[in-house]
Design brief:
The structure holds three protein chains of three kinds. By secondary structure, chain B is of the alpha/beta class. Chain B is about 30% helix and about 25% strand. In chain B, helix 4 runs parallel beside helix 6. In chain C, helix 3 packs antiparallel against helix 4, helix 5 packs antiparallel against helix 6 and helix 6 packs across helix 7. Classes of the chains: A alpha/beta, B alpha/beta, C mainly alpha. Chains B and C meet through helix 4 and helix 5 of B and helix 7 of C.
């Protein structure tokens, strides 16, 4: 059984505009995957199918052996962390602290416990000095770190990152890479959707190139 | 001749203690293609905003020193006059394009400047030709790819027919294919004699330029990071 | 430069104004129903995308029905349905509710008619009617950005669930804070985009002068005049019937 299975999947956004036809792909947790391809190739769509955000028009997408059509999104989110290309799409709070802690607060966790967990992440992601800042007013690199930290609050076992290097300069890309290596060493699997070949070559072990809805090649390093 | 002249520029945003730009000086010659790079947050975009008058006319901040376009102080010019001399294109096409067709979008600038209709028609043609997007004239910009949208954003600013063009991280959100098209456009414009200042943190995008400067610690210096 | 065989947006505006006037001024249920039907027919003739509109306002429909119900309950009159001496539904109440629903239907159908013209031509129509151009542009920007809002709400819901929140099972106490969390990205996103857009527009000379030229010029055709005439005529007829 593979961690994520895409079986004979068809997907179209609107009637007649098919993105994929009969796509099949197996993904294991211990691989670090690069999903590459030009704009419009379908790679973001594929990432969303994998995370259960989109459901296939035909065929099946299984994550941890369950059909994504049968798992509520919030349950998937606890095990698979999804990072949008634009980090602002997943910021909800007015302060960095609240951004990290609000989910647990809503679920009724103990405040001391939340504080502990939040401070762990603040330390790890170098966000301590920004505790009271608005997530929306941070720099691109800071937003990136906050988005990943927030997703990791649930301690997911897999991450899907959509174009994480957008807007980052070389130094911040290196920092991101170090972060991802650290997570990889903790056993977290990941799929990185990116057109930045040089970035993914440094961390990924499997390279899938999609163009016009078809897998053009699928190679392991 | 020096098209842009900046002397001893000091700048900080209103609520900050530290100065972002500390005694910065810059001279840009007519027809030059200048690239400015630096880490995120170093002030490159802020510098462009100051050159085209967004700071202090639209956004606020404490600014000291000389900033001149063709010999005139920017702070003494109205935006409507500055907009005839400097055009600026930003990073996010969705925050620049808002009209239903490409043609509407490109016509918008000249219409604001009360350019007569026939001239607007000519400018639309020239702008579309410059970015190689003539076949998309009646297309809805929302249906275009990110790179194509940026080309339309550039065309819309080209229609203002300014002598100077500022490009603020215009390739940051664009894929390889789109970047190539934008770079080709920039080179063509350079060949036609347009004065341009490009800001980008990605070194790969800088090789087009005649001169590359780095903004560090609030000042500009020659870029040696090759 | 002319656009193809689409009617002048000003003609559509006249039609919409006529329908809205009738919707407000007429009280008779039979007449209102006729006007609502007329609006529907007009919208279909203009090939307004009614299916898509229905999908978009599905949630709104529940709210409208709720308002209609409230109106009917709180209107005094001849009781239709009572419980323990207390009139829950009255004839007048039901009448009010139906009037409300029909009026909303008329407004919604006529709004879709405007949507069949591009925002640029609507702006031009208003400007050629001597509306100050900056107001016309604001209106058109609203039209352009509002539909995007719906998609953003959907994205926001998806994103918050992916953070592990089961939106269907939130205790009532937390529901209010949930809504404020959900709306934050929308609000901030919209404000930021609006600010950036206004700067871009200003740097392209927007509001440089009191007037602006236009590449797009609208000219009425015979068909436009004909339709406007008939719309106003029919409106007058309905109003007269309504007041007899």
């Amino acid at each position: 059984m593979h961690y994520i299975e895409i079986r004979d999947v068809d997907f179209e956004y609107e009637k007649g505009k098919s993105v994929f036809q009969n796509l099949s792909l197996n993904i294991d947790k211990n691989e670090t995957i690069a999903l590459m391809g030009p704009n419009g190739s379908g790679k973001t769509t594929l990432g969303k199918l994998m995370a259960g955000i989109l459901k296939p028009t035909k065929g099946q997408v299984n994550v941890f052996s369950r059909d994504t059509r049968g798992i509520p999104l919030h349950e998937i989110g606890l095990r698979i962390g999804y990072l949008f290309q634009n980090p602002e799409k997943q910021f909800f709070a007015n302060t960095v602290y609240d951004e990290l802690g609000f989910v647990m607060k809503i679920k009724g966790y103990d405040e001391e416990y939340i504080k502990e967990k939040v401070e762990e992440k603040l330390e790890l992601f170098q966000l301590k000095g920004l505790v009271n800042h608005s997530p929306f007013l941070l720099s691109q690199g800071e937003k990136q770190r906050l988005a990943i930290a927030a997703v990791l609050m649930n301690e997911p076992e897999y991450l899907i990152l959509d174009e994480p290097t957008t807007g980052l300069d070389k130094k911040r890309k290196d920092m991101l890479l170090n972060l991802l290596f650290m997570l990889k060493n903790q056993g977290i699997g990941m799929t990185i959707i990116s057109h930045d070949r040089r970035f993914v070559e440094r961390i990924c072990s499997r390279f899938i190139y999609i163009s016009r809805g078809e897998i053009q090649y699928d190679e392991r390093a | 001749m020096d098209v842009i002249e900046i002397s001893n520029l000091y700048f900080r945003y209103s609520k900050r203690e530290e100065y972002l730009l500390k005694g910065l000086s810059l001279r840009v010659r007519k027809g030059e293609l200048l690239a400015i790079t630096g880490e995120s947050g170093c002030g490159k975009s802020t510098l462009l905003s100051i050159i085209c008058g967004i700071i202090p006319h639209i956004r606020k901040g404490e600014i000291e020193g000389e900033v001149k376009l063709f010999g005139r102080e920017v702070r003494d010019m109205a935006i409507r006059d500055i907009s005839k001399e400097v055009g600026i294109v930003f990073q996010d096409p969705d925050s620049q394009i808002f009209l239903p067709t490409v043609e509407d979008e490109i016509a918008f600038g000249p219409e604001n400047l009360m350019v007569p209709r026939e001239e607007i028609g000519l400018r639309i043609e020239r702008a579309l030709k410059a970015v190689n997007m003539e076949e998309y004239r009646l297309e809805n910009p929302n249906n275009l790819s990110g790179g194509q949208k940026q080309l339309i954003a550039i065309a819309s600013v080209l229609a203002m027919e300014t002598d100077i063009l500022l490009l603020d991280e215009v390739m940051s959100q664009i894929d390889e294919d789109g970047k190539d098209k934008i770079k080709r456009t920039i080179l063509n414009l350079h060949r036609e004699g347009k004065t341009m200042v490009i800001v980008d943190h990605d070194i790969d995008n800088l090789s087009l330029a005649d001169r590359v400067l780095e903004l560090k610690s609030g000042m500009l210096r020659e870029f040696k990071g090759w | 430069m002319t656009r193809e065989h689409n009617l002048d947006p000003r003609t559509k505006l006249v039609i919409v104004l006529c329908l809205s006037t009738l919707g407000i001024a007429v009280n008779n249920l039979a007449l209102l129903s006729a006007i609502a039907l007329l609006s529907y027919v007009a919208a279909s003739l203009f090939r307004a995308n009614l299916k898509r509109t229905f999908r978009k306002i599905k949630s709104l429909i529940y709210m409208l029905l709720f308002i209609a119900l409230v109106q009917s309950i709180f209107t005094r009159g001849e009781p239709l349905l009572s419980a323990g001496g207390f009139a829950i539904l009255t004839v007048n109440g039901v009448e009010r509710a139906l009037q409300f629903i029909l009026r909303m239907a008329i407004v919604i159908f006529s709004a879709t008619i405007i949507g069949t013209s591009s925002s640029r031509s609507i702006i031009q129509g208003l400007v050629q009617w001597k509306l100050p151009y900056d107001i016309a542009f604001m209106a058109a920007l609203g039209i352009r950005f509002l539909p995007m809002l719906r998609e953003e709400i959907r994205d926001s819901l998806v994103a918050i669930q992916l953070r592990g929140i089961d939106i269907k099972n939130i205790p009532i106490k937390e529901r209010i804070s949930l809504y404020s969390y959900l709306f934050n990205p929308l609000l901030v996103g919209t404000l930021l985009k609006a600010e950036r857009l206004s700067i871009a527009m200003e740097m392209r000379g927007f509001r440089a002068y009191d007037k602006r030229t236009s590449y797009l010029v609208l000219k009425f055709t015979k068909l436009d005049y004909l339709i406007m005439f008939f719309s106003i005529a029919i409106t007058a007829v309905f109003l007269i019937i309504s007041y007899m």
